[in-house]
Amino acid sequence: MYQATYQLSDPSRRHSLTEYPYASLPYYAFLTISALLMAITGELGGSTLEAFWTNTSMSLSSTVSQPLWVRLSTEKSRAATTLVAVACFITGSSLALMAGSFDLLIAARTAQGLGIGGITALTNLVLLDFVSSGKSAAALGWVSASRALGSAVGPVVGASISERGLWRWIFWIDIPLALFSLVVLPSLVPCSAQAGSSSALGGLAQLDWIGAFVFLASLTGFLIPLTWGGVLFDWVSTHTLLPLCVCLGGLVGFALYSALWSRSPIFDRALFLTANSVVIYANAVFHGVAIFSLLYYLPLYFTIVKGASVLRASLYILPNSVIAAVASTASGAATSRMGRYRPLLWLGWATTTVGCGAQLVLDETTSVAGGVALTLVSGVGIGVLFTTLNLAAQASVPPAHTPAASSTTNFFRSLGQTVGIAVGGVVVQNVFRREIEASSVYGAYGAMWSRNIVKVGQAVRALKSPEQQALKSLVVTGVARSTRAVWLLLCILSGTQFLVSVAWVEDLTLDGARAVPRRRRLSISRPQLQTSLADPAAAGSFVR
């Protein structure tokens, strides 16, 4: 049994992006594999179902594991727990590059997802454990920027490797990046030789196993039909609706159990006792929806509508991700200087709304340069929200719970990303199907083609003869209008969140004080909340 001893690194080094290379791994790892699925399926001889699970297994294991990683970590074992998460990622990557079948590849991707879940959940906790509150905004800006850069580099690397058919190289690249993190993290937050295991075992002993089981089973059962709806099974089929409804009920039951009966809930009750924090978590869900909807469906537009290769399409969306990284860093510095987050929160949602609205003009006639320029606006908004939402969540809870609030925001953002892919897919498929079915010649193919939009789009790109141009035009127009429907949905959702943030988010300083009189609050006041939480028995302890 032992205690961890933290030695703080030099303050001037705390804000260096190179100290958090592992923060970029989640988005990088998620987005590199999509372009490689066709090559992987061809070499391993897999089915559409196996290809589907190769991508989905990582997303599911990452999302559902995040709260458990945080719940198992303690202030004394945080760095050690993060190293375990990185080791899980390395193990999964090593198994994936050796995979000779889809069974092993899917298992490896699941292990990668567990590691990614830990990295996503614990990065901010490690940071906030030793960075002073006055510098946390700028430091979180750098971490958010590294994540945005991961989303920029991932598609380009994946597309480059895909064109050469060397899909195993993607996992070779993953390993040195993660190994570098294993070296960097201990030097950043060194512990004594006796650090971590007793604290981690204590976290296991205190874990609410009933709540954990219900949470994992319900969330997994809810997300799986969301990811396969419209892909493997129809949205109105029993395979999709039954698990959605049953597991949604399980999540509601989990929430009631955690609020009323659990002695050590997975999610600390203190994180949800103010209206401000609840609104911020809802903002994070919709932020995640916007991130992955843009990252998934902008390449679809450039590939099918503008006829770009997968690599060129990845390069076309690169400026959007780069500007998001710059905006994320700038918003962290600006928030730190102002000492308030609400102006940047409003700016983020307003810019995202305007940017998604501007993308409504994207069609077959839009030049590539014009299309790339239009995507920069939404990139600014997405980047600003990356940092600001975490800071807003931290300011909405008592100081002892700020690390947990930041990680909970990351969880809801990850949940939104999974939902965003599903929702975007529903919109694209339904609009595309409607466009095809409106054709008197090809209408009978609407249902079938809507399930394989990428393959159909790639096939019609090669059509050259005059008599085939009508078919090509029909598909290209269908994809253009389908993606436009996604931009419209994102514009509406972002605009709604802007209005919600104006109406309900309090103007707090970064230390939780009110900058202006509060207009909306729950029945429990912030001083009462802090007083009640002074007693450990008053609420479950998330960060111990």
From TrEMBL:
Bilayer-crossing regions: 20-40, 82-107, 113-131, 169-189, 209-228, 240-260, 272-298, 310-332, 344-362, 368-392, 485-505
Residue ranges constituting the Major facilitator superfamily (MFS) profile domain according to the UniProt record: 1-469
InterPro entries with a match to the protein in the record: MFS, MFS_dom, MFS_trans_sf
Chief subcellular location: membrane
GO MF terms, alphabetically ordered: transmembrane transporter activity
Gene3D superfamilies from the UniProt entry: MFS general substrate transporter like domains, Multidrug resistance protein D
Membrane association type: Multi-pass membrane protein
The keyword Protein biosynthesis belongs to this UniProt entry's keyword annotation: no
UniProt keyword list: Membrane, Transmembrane, Transmembrane helix
Annotated localization: Membrane
GO terms under cellular component: plasma membrane
PANTHER family: MAJOR FACILITATOR SUPERFAMILY, MAJOR FACILITATOR SUPERFAMILY (MFS) PROFILE DOMAIN-CONTAINING PROTEIN-RELATED
Record's protein name: Efflux pump FUS6
Lineage: Eukaryota, Fungi, Dikarya, Ascomycota, Pezizomycotina
